[in-house]
User: Which sequence fits this backbone?
């Protein structure tokens, strides 16, 4: 036997056809080969294996025991090759793959659960590698190629990335129910940014969209920002508010999820900055895999503006 088998898929298909049809002429016809060339392929296969695979009959060919053993392997190899082709076609069509998404916390909590459910239903063979981070880090992840798609609040940065409008949300101020601001709003007085910044705040880490927004408000109004503490999540912010350390700003939908207690007040902030637009940013189309493009299209088609 030769040290290596060098037969190709055409030869294996010819071998299977010859075995099934009982003759090399019929097998060659199935694959549109010249009988002489087909005969040479079968002979070379036998030479490589070092053993005859057929019994030559006056009017055809029949498999011997070795041939029947090779037939099972040949069919398995051809089946695997077909599966490989099907899988690669799925990748090319954007129906299979791994998509890396970097998203800010507000987007994860408010929107992504529904979108990921839709993507799993539509593309069960596309797996999502989700990384939750602040908006600035989202942009950096896409710029560095660590993420295929990013979701962030659009006022955070103006960078040379392709973007598509995604979703909108509205911010509110969360205070204990007994806080002076809650009483102010209950009496019919609006809560403006200037009034908000008079109070101690519990903020998110630097780079978070809400932290950047509060700093921008302070600069615009020329009011010092009273940031008592910065935390890494809205859950931690809620815990600090409940302890009386300060008040916080978070999306209305998130506040309803994590602080539904009647002991807290969710106050509307009367400022244009309270209405936010999120965007999808993504790698250049030349670098974007088909699976990522499929998810990007799905997310952008589902974009709505819930308030």
Assistant:
């Amino acid at each position: 036997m030769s040290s290596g088998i060098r037969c190709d898929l055409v030869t294996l298909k010819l071998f299977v056809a010859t075995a099934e049809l009982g003759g090399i002429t019929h097998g060659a016809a199935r694959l549109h080969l010249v009988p002489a060339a087909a005969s040479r392929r079968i002979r070379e296969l036998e030479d490589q294996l070092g053993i005859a695979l057929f019994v030559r009959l006056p009017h055809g060919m029949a498999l011997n025991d070795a041939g029947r053993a090779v037939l099972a392997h040949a069919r398995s190899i051809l089946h695997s090759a077909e599966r490989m082709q099907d899988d690669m076609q799925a990748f090319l069509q954007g129906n299979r793959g791994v998509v890396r998404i970097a998203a800010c916390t507000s987007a994860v909590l408010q929107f992504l659960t529904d979108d990921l459910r839709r993507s799993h239903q539509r593309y069960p063979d596309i797996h999502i590698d989700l990384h939750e981070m602040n908006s600035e880090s989202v942009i950096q992840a896409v710029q560095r190629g660590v993420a295929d798609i990013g979701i962030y609040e659009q006022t955070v940065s103006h960078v040379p990335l392709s973007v598509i409008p995604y979703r909108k949300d509205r911010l509110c101020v969360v205070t204990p129910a007994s806080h002076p601001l809650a009483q102010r709003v209950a009496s019919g007085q609006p809560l403006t940014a200037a009034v908000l910044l008079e109070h101690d705040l519990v903020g998110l880490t630097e780079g978070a969209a809400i932290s950047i927004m509060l700093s921008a408000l302070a600069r615009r109004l020329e009011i010092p920002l009273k940031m008592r503490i910065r935390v890494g999540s809205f859950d931690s912010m809620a815990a600090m508010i409940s302890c009386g350390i300060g008040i916080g700003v978070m999306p209305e939908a998130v506040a309803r999820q994590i602080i539904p207690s009647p002991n807290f007040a969710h106050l509307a902030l009367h400022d244009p900055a309270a209405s936010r637009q999120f965007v999808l940013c993504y790698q250049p189309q030349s670098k974007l895999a088909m699976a990522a493009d499929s998810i990007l299209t799905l997310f952008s088609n589902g974009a709505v503006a819930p308030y």
In short: The radius of gyration is 32 Å.
